[in-house]
Amino acid sequence: MRETLREAWEWFVTLPHRYHGLMLGIAVWIVWMIVGFWHMVLLAVLAALFYWFGRLWEQEGSIAGIAERLLAQLASRRRPRDGM
Prior knowledge:
With 84 residues, this protein is mainly α. It has one domain (16-78). Helix content is 81%, strand content 0%. The longest helix is centred in the middle third of the chain and has 20 residues, at 41-60. The radius of gyration is 18 Å and the shape is flat. The model has no long low-confidence stretch (mean pLDDT 81). Keywords: Membrane, Transmembrane, Transmembrane helix. It comes from Alicyclobacillus mali.
């Protein structure tokens, strides 16, 4: 049993992060569907959102890198422009 779980974990860890995000999105969707607040369209929205998050995670290499990138974009939007 432990060996099977270890092999499953090793398979899961070797997947690209975009699939981790996709699985997380599907899990969140299932919880919301059980509670009863969302419709079937939410599956597509959450899957796309978490797939996008997983791709960003792959590009940046860490969640901290994603946060830095997003915060830098927010800071550049709020910065007043010279000459105005």
